[in-house]
Input
Amino acid sequence: MQKCVVLTLTFFSFAQIHGTRTLWSYMQKYLRSDDYTKKDTGDANLAFLFTYGLGMNILGPILCRINLKLSVALGCISTAMVFTAIGYLLQEKKLTYSWIIILMILNGLSQSTCYPGCVNILGNWFRNAKVGILMGIWSGCTNFGDIDGLIIGDRIVQRSSLDYSWAFYIIAISLYAIGLLDLLFLKIAPDNRNKKVEPLQSLIDKESEDINKSLTEQTDSQNLNQRGKVNILNAWCLPGVAIYAFCYGCLKGTFVGLLYWLPDYLQNDPQLEKQSSYIAQMFDVGTFIGGVFIGLLGDVYKKRAIFISPSIMIAIALMLMIRFLLQSDPLPYYFVVLGIGFFQGGPYNNISGVISIELTTQLKNDKAAISIVSSLIESVGTLTAASFQLILSRLADDQLFLFFTLVTGVAELTTLVLLYQECKKKKDQK
Output
């Protein structure tokens, strides 16, 4: 029973955290004025993403060492305070560019404490479960939260007479509630402490070590072990890390770009505006299904690039379809956006997690390797997504999907290199 409570609380905690991002993306058009333009929106998104990435590497781990429950609850409550402030300033017509930048910086730092605490608590409770399956299901909280944020924005803007500030108040109230529930009922570990409680990272390390037994040591990894343990610099020398990091950076840049700018793109068409929330939700639905499906294929056939590469190619075709073929009829957008989520979001969901494990399987003697490689790949993705915000906020609507196509095409070129390496390895094994 307690495991269900833990799973539910952590699920909804990070879901509501993620919901604030799509709510912000949906509402940003309606916040614009002479003092807050589309270009300023890009600056605000950059401020959030940069401080979020910084906090994930500094503030989150520090709070996790102090108190895991506090890390999760504080992330929810402090984020709620930020969105309460946004709602109040909007209601009083005092929400200026300077205030938005300050609040987005605080928002990034606030949100950075929740995720590390959630995954460590899950690791304490489910250390004997199959981590991959569990995290695959739990990671659906991001898609759930994204849809929730879009629904709140749609209900306030399109289907009620309430002031727009209520969208921010509602998401804040839900975060206050889940934060309070975390403080009251979230247990960081089982009562039986006879056995040492291992964090989730240790479980992933063990899974990585099990795979090591069936693999041949590679020369590059041996050289790294001889020189010392893997760090953030020499991790770039590991086979496949640089290529995967570059590919993930392009995919995350596109993924976050769609998350923030797809609602805005749809809202600029009067015939699509009222359904912009529901069309944008299809992206998250497709991402979740695609992540599970492509991950399952990779597990079954023990190959990744052979599925990731064609998937990205189809996503490119669908993006071009939006740019050149679709008009103002809402119905085709539902299916095309669902397809983009499936074929672009699926590879995105797989690269950062599962592939990080596979890239470090050759490093038997370095238990921190998977953490280093995961951080490296995630940092590249976050910095790329943040920098893209400056570009996207300065593009016209008809240039948006051309840019997404270009960046995703670069990701496709890197996967072709990975596909060649996969095929060559299979040939050598024969």
Remarks:
- DSSP finds 18 helices and no strands in the chain.
- The first helix runs from residue 2 to 31.
